[in-house]
Automatic annotation (TrEMBL):
Residues 102-165 form the Mechanosensitive ion channel MscS domain. This is Putative MscS family protein. PANTHER family: SMALL-CONDUCTANCE MECHANOSENSITIVE CHANNEL. It comes from Luteimicrobium xylanilyticum. Keywords: Membrane, Transmembrane, Transmembrane helix. The keyword Membrane applies. The keyword Plastid does not apply. Pfam families: MS_channel_2nd. The chain crosses the membrane at residues 12-31, 52-77, 83-102.
Length: 272
C-alpha cells in the first residue's frame, strides 16, 4: 500500500497546507490542555491514586491526537473509513478486555464524589466489616477487626448495600439471655438494666432495655439491647455480659448470656 493510496496529492493546495498547520496546532494545544484539565479534575478526587490520574490524562491526550490525525487525513483527501474501522475494532477489544477495570474505575469516581465513606470510617459491605484504610481506583480497602486487609471491588461496593456505622451517633448491640428461672422473670430486669447502665461505654440515650423474644415450657429467651459508640461494640458488649453475669450470680438467679446472640436453632421449637 503506497502513500498515494492514502493521500490525494493532486488536490493539495496552499489552503490545504494552511488547514493542516491550523489542525496540527489546534491538536497540540487541545491535547496539552486536555491532559492538564483531566489531571487537575482527577487530582481533586480524594484517595485517587496519582498513577490513575496520570494514566487517564495521557489517554485523553492520545484520543485528541488520534482525532487530529483523522481530521488531517480528511483534509488531505484520504479515505479514513479503513482507519476508523481498525480503531473501532481495537477500541471494542480494549473495552472488553478492560471492562472490569473500567467499571471499578468509574465506580471509584462515583464513590469518591458522593463520599458514602471516608478514610477511618467503620463500614459494612459485601459481608465484611472493618475500618476504611484506603480508597483507590480499583477497590475499597478495609482492615477488619481480626487484622485482615480486605479489598472490596468498587463496582460491587457501589451496587450492593453499604452500611457506614461511623456516620451515626451510635450503634446498638444485643446480648441474648436464656433462663429457666420462670418464677423470677420480673426480678431479672432490675439487676440486668442497672448493671448495663453503669457499664463504661454504654450510652444513656437511648436507654438500655430488655425484651423477651422466645418462650418454651421450661425456658425464656430475651434480648438485652444497649447503645454504644460505633467502634466499641465488642468491648462494651463483653463488659456488659460479664457485669450482668456477676449481678445475676449475686442475686441468686440462673441465666446464660451470649454476645452476640446465638444463631437460631435448626430444629423447630416444641409445641406449647
Amino acid at each position: 500500500m503506497s502513500l498515494g493510496s492514502w493521500i490525494d496529492f493532486d488536490s493539495i493546495s496552499g489552503w490545504t497546507v494552511v488547514w493542516l498547520v491550523v489542525t496540527g496546532v489546534a491538536t497540540w494545544l487541545a491535547a496539552r490542555y486536555g491532559r492538564r484539565a483531566v489531571g487537575r479534575v482527577l487530582g481533586r478526587v480524594d484517595g485517587l491514586s496519582d498513577n490513575y490520574s496520570v494514566t487517564a490524562a495521557r489517554i485523553a491526550g492520545y484520543l485528541v491526537v488520534l482525532l487530529g490525525i483523522g481530521i488531517a487525513l480528511t483534509i488531505l483527501g484520504s479515505d479514513v473509513q479503513p482507519l476508523l474501522a481498525i480503531v473501532l475494532i481495537v477500541g471494542i477489544v480494549a473495552f472488553l478486555a478492560l471492562r472490569g477495570v473500567a467499571d471499578n474505575f468509574g465506580a471509584s469516581l462515583v464513590l469518591q464524589t458522593r463520599k458514602p465513606a471516608h478514610l477511618g470510617d467503620m463500614v459494612e459491605s459485601l459481608e465484611h466489616t472493618g475500618t476504611v484504610v484506603e480508597l483507590n481506583g480499583r477497590s475499597v480497602v478495609l482492615r477488619t477487626f481480626d487484622g485482615r486487609l480486605v479489598h472490596l471491588p468498587n463496582g460491587k461496593v457501589l451496587s450492593e448495600p453499604l452500611v457506614n456505622r461511623t456516620s451515626t451517633t451510635g450503634n446498638r448491640s444485643e446480648i441474648e439471655i436464656r433462663t429457666t428461672a420462670l418464677d423470677h422473670v420480673a426480678t431479672l430486669r432490675d439487676p440486668l438494666l442497672a448493671t448495663t447502665r453503669h457499664t463504661a461505654g454504654v450510652r444513656p440515650d437511648p436507654p438500655p432495655d430488655l425484651v423477651w423474644v422466645g418462650s418454651t415450657p421450661n425456658r425464656l429467651v430475651g434480648r438485652l439491647r444497649l447503645w454504644h459508640a460505633p467502634a466499641d461494640g465488642t468491648s462494651v458488649a463483653s463488659a456488659v455480659a460479664l457485669g450482668a453475669s456477676e449481678a445475676l450470680r449475686e442475686a441468686g438467679l440462673a441465666a446464660s448470656l451470649s454476645a452476640p446472640p446465638l444463631p437460631a436453632a435448626l430444629s423447630p421449637a416444641p409445641e406449647l
